[in-house]
Design brief:
Mean pLDDT of chain A: 89
Number of domains of chain B: 1
Shape of chain A: elongated
Largest sheet of chain B: none
Low-confidence stretches of chain A: none
Helix content of chain A: 25-40%
Oligomer: heterodimer
CATH topology of the largest domain in chain A: Rossmann fold
Order of helices and strands of chain B: HHHHHHHHHHH
Number of helices of chain A: 11
Number of strands of chain B: 0
Largest interface: A-B, 36 and 34 residues
Strand content of chain A: 25-35%
Structural class of chain A: alpha/beta
Largest sheet of chain A: 6 strands, mixed
CATH architecture of the largest domain in chain A: 3-Layer(aba) Sandwich
Number of helices of chain B: 11
Distance between the termini of chain A: 35 Å
Helix content of chain B: over 70%
Strand content of chain B: under 5%
Strand order of the largest sheet of chain A: 6-7-8-3-9-10
Distance between the termini of chain B: 43 Å
Number of domains of chain A: 2
Mean pLDDT of chain B: 93
Radius of gyration of chain B: 19 Å
CATH superfamily of the largest domain in chain A: P-loop containing nucleotide triphosphate hydrolases
CATH class of the largest domain in chain A: Alpha Beta
Number of strands of chain A: 14
Chain lengths: 313, 269
């Protein structure tokens, strides 16, 4: 399998203070393999090491120890070659404040060596793609947060990167704008096959976009896999809410296979099961056999947020 | 051949990017108007009027006006070189620049170009003002000498601008103050208002290490001032070229250190 990112035993320590050195380990032996063409999520609480890892991969920070290969090249020896084929867009986008949207794109396009007609066409395409034409002559400092974010994504696509790093791309955005940005990311991946490594605090976003995710905490990888795998690994299961009429023999129900926990409240209960698709028919059969009338059924599947909470507990 | 041409075109485009940035930012920034009009003119007029008041001989007046005009051109040009990094620091966009496949050379050459345009504008304004207000002809040494003098000034300015960038990359944006203060040291050491021969011995040794000292001596020689040192033009150019090579090396080293220490990221926050 071809990998866009190969990280083995990566360490990074920051030191501060002139005389009394204070050292803080940001990454403590991180391993990460991201196959080409995937959208991969990097999740974890604040200070977990996500941005540090992304910064090392984008050549803004030097690794201290370990192997880092990006697009098959060693980051230490081929930084320049790698730079031309990757790009980065971060939340809380910041660009040159006095420049307009078009001027900012022109500047960054030139940094990637684009000039003349090629540059003009690329910028026009991106302005169209992100619906930025109306803002082309507006200065960066006058843009809304959502438009700044669109500019940041446009800038990140100037060099048609093979690998794109998105650092919290929807942070601080209104839900509708965040939704549109997510759509754009998905289209970008579907249309161009770009490998995307995304960090986010928004678990729903990760679940929607990412094929696989890696949880990082305190500088170490805690888990990786598909959202479904992770839920399974943590035995998070699903919750079935039932409102009913009648006497429920809890002890018998609790002994049924696949039922982890039952919580009663008046004439309703919350049953945590390993998989609601398998267990619900059995539970319904049980209720029917007991002549209990069900008024309402509500199923709550566990999601990445539950995985996140479980890991950070 | 085609690969070489495409590489060359890419190099020029990347250099043009930095010139484009400095040009747009300067165009939109009211302070830059102050930098090329207000401060140089105020400084020039106050020194020129003082020279009139104390009834200096015309040769002495020439000595001082050459210093003031040179200093103003150096100040504006070096600011542009330093601004190339500082604009990104102030707008917290540094990481977007450094993630791109560009080198420090593109940054320096591109910003120097705009620095020369702005420094050249200051030079022309003050040369014209010298003639009109103080009856001093700055053009006596001839076109060749003026070009050599100006190039010396701009290269000296580049030296200061790169030093500011090295300091910012090394200690963070606290060092931005150097963009305005380093030139004041040159004012003291390079003989802007007085010949370096009057400096105490220890300080004169430092003056000897500053290329601007030699470029000023070179130009003043056309107005009858014998240089304190020999072969001033050669010494000035050799020195400035060596310093620039060293600085480019140290700037790359500072960038590597900034990436190692995380300073680059801090400057982007």
């Amino acid at each position: 399998m071809d990998y866009a990112v190969e990280v083995k035993n990566l360490h990074k320590t920051f030191s501060s203070g002139l005389f009394r050195k204070r050292r803080k380990s940001a990454l403590k032996g991180v391993d990460l393999m991201v196959p080409k063409g995937t959208i991969w999520g990097l999740l974890g609480p604040n200070g977990a090491g996500k941005t540090t890892l992304l910064s090392i991969l984008s050549n803004l920070l030097t690794p201290e120890k370990g192997d880092v290969r990006v697009l098959g090249m060693d980051i230490r020896t081929h930084a320049k070659d790698i730079c031309g084929r990757i790009n980065l867009s971060s939340g809380h986008a910041n660009f040159l404040w006095s420049m307009t949207v078009r001027e900012n794109l022109e500047y960054y396009a030139m940094l990637y060596g684009l000039s003349g007609e090629k540059k003009r066409r690329k910028i026009e395409n991106l302005l169209d793609l992100f619906r930025l034409q109306d803002f082309a002559k507006v200065r960066f400092e006058e843009l809304s947060t959502g438009t700044k974010q669109k500019l940041s994504l446009s800038k990140a696509l100037l060099n048609d990167p093979d690998l794109l790093f998105l650092d919290e791309p929807t942070v601080g955005l209104d839900p509708d704008v965040a939704h549109r940005i997510r759509d754009m990311i998905q289209h970008l991946h579907d249309d161009q096959g770009t490998t995307i490594l995304i960090t986010t605090h928004n678990m729903k976003e990760a679940e929607i976009l990412c094929e696989k995710v890696t949880f990082i905490m305190d500088g170490r990888i805690r888990a990786k896999g598909t959202p479904r795998d992770l839920k399974k690994e943590l035995h998070l299961g699903d919750t079935i809410h039932l409102a009913f009429q009648g006497a429920l023999p809890i002890a018998t129900l609790q002994n049924m296979e696949g039922i982890d926990h039952i919580e009663m409240k008046d004439s309703s209960c919350r049953i945590r099961v390993d998989n609601h698709r398998e267990r619900l028919p059995q539970i319904l059969d049980f209720f029917t056999a007991q002549r209990i009338i069900i008024h309402n059924i509500n199923i709550q599947e566990s999601d990445l947020e539950d995985v996140f909470i479980t890991f950070t507990k | 051949m085609r690969t070489y041409l495409s590489h060359l075109q890419s190099e020029i485009t990347k250099t043009r990017a930095f010139a484009f940035k400095n040009w747009i930012m300067a165009k939109r920034n009211v302070f830059t108007l102050f930098e090329i009009l207000f401060w140089p003119t105020v400084s020039f007029l106050s020194v020129g009027l003082l020279a009139e008041f104390v009834e200096l001989q015309s040769s002495m007046k020439a000595f001082i006006l050459v210093g003031v005009v040179a200093m103003s051109a150096v100040q504006v040009c070096q600011l542009d070189v330093a601004y190339s990094l500082l604009y990104d620091v102030w707008s917290k966009a540094l990481k977007h620049g450094f993630i791109a496949p560009v080198g420090t050379r593109h940054m320096v050459y591109g910003s120097l170009f705009i620095g020369m345009v702005r420094g050249g504008a200051v030079f022309l304004i003050l040369v014209g003002a010298s003639y009109v207000i103080f009856d001093f002809n700055f053009l006596i040494p001839g076109a060749g000498a003026i070009v050599l003098f100006l190039m010396g000034l701009f290269l000296s300015a580049t030296m200061v601008g790169i030093l500011v960038s090295i300091l910012v990359l090394t200690v963070g944006n606290r060092a931005e103050v150097a963009a305005w203060s380093l030139v004041s040291l040159m004012l003291l050491l390079c003989g802007i208002y007085y010949p370096v021969s009057i400096l105490p011995k220890g300080i004169m040794t430092i003056a000897k290490l500053m290329p601007l000292t030699y470029f000023l001596e070179y130009y003043r020689a056309f107005y009858g001032f014998d240089p304190t040192f020999s072969h001033v033009l050669i010494k000035g150019y050799v020195m400035v070229v060596i310093y620039l090579f060293l600085e480019m090396y140290f700037m790359k080293a500072a960038l590597r250190r900034a990436k190692r220490k995380g300073i680059l990221l801090k400057l982007s926050e």
